[in-house]
Design brief:
The strands form two sheets. This protein has a five-stranded parallel β-sheet. The protein has a two-stranded antiparallel sheet with strand order 3-4. The radius of gyration is 19 Å and the shape is globular. By secondary structure, it is an alpha/beta fold. It is built from nine helices and seven strands. It starts with a strand and ends with a helix. About 40% of the residues lie in helices and about 15% in strands.
């Protein structure tokens, strides 16, 4: 069975997105959509000595409500790069695997990315490589799809030719499951069970950027990411059981 999922190239995502990609055979960059201000496109959280902290990338905001996510440009008029590097260093220089990833951190935040999606994709692909997650990757713009919300996803599923589509938990609010069933496409709603792991700075805080997991846990990150959650094979078995009922 070909399992498909898709997502916007959001900034330094949380663990749940990488689980969703890990249980899929094909992943679509959903970047031909509207940029969302004050969401996850250009900000996420890390854990500091003062608790969770938003780390944001400023973007050029002129007419940004009329611009697709893939065309949103980063704003370098603010001195955000040095500030973020300093914040990460202060927050994680005592983390077990900080030195392993230090060169990447310095490159990632010092490089002059033009587009936000370019920066975000680079990070996500790097994490996928570190975690040895290897789905087939397709650009949304390369697909001939149309519609909105549930119909857009269904159009994408038909274009790619998948058997199972993985929605996030919020997909339950808009997915028209009957239409997917009619087209013989199974639907799975991911409800990610967030694991706990060794962190700096006191009691565990969930829903940080996956950076927090990597810097604290290194090579154990994939197993921690998947712990307490269904694997690809378990999802297929679950769907087959549902068909047998």
């Amino acid at each position: 069975m070909n399992i498909l999922t898709a997502h916007q190239p959001v900034y330094m995502p949380w663990l749940g997105l990488f689980h969703k990609i890990a249980i899929s055979d094909t992943f679509v960059w959903f970047d031909d959509v509207q940029y969302q201000s004050k969401e996850w496109d250009n900000r996420n959280k890390i854990k500091t000595s003062h608790g969770p902290l938003w780390i944001s990338i400023p973007v050029k905001r002129k007419n940004h409500f009329d611009i697709k996510l893939r065309n949103i440009e980063i704003d370098y008029s603010q001195n955000w790069q040095k500030k973020i590097l300093k914040t990460i260093d202060l927050s994680y220089n005592k983390a077990k695997f900080y030195n392993k990833y230090k060169k990447f951190i310095e490159f990632f935040f010092s490089n002059n990315w033009k587009y936000l999606s370019e920066m975000n994709k680079y990070f996500i692909l790097w994490v996928m490589q570190e975690l040895r997650i290897k789905p087939k990757i397709i650009e949304m713009t390369k697909l001939k799809i149309d519609g909105k919300k549930s119909d857009l996803v269904l159009s994408m599923c038909k274009s790619v030719g998948c058997d199972i589509y993985v929605f996030g938990k919020e997909g339950k609010t808009y997915a028209e499951v009957a239409k997917f069933n009619k087209n013989k496409i199974n639907v799975f709603f991911q409800d990610y069970n967030h694991p706990s792991y060794s962190q700096l700075w006191g009691s565990f805080k969930s829903h940080m950027s996956i950076f927090d997991l990597l810097l604290n846990c290194g090579d154990e990150s994939y197993d921690i990411l998947m712990s307490g959650n269904l694997s690809k094979n378990e999802i297929i078995k679950l769907i087959n059981l549902n068909h047998e009922k």
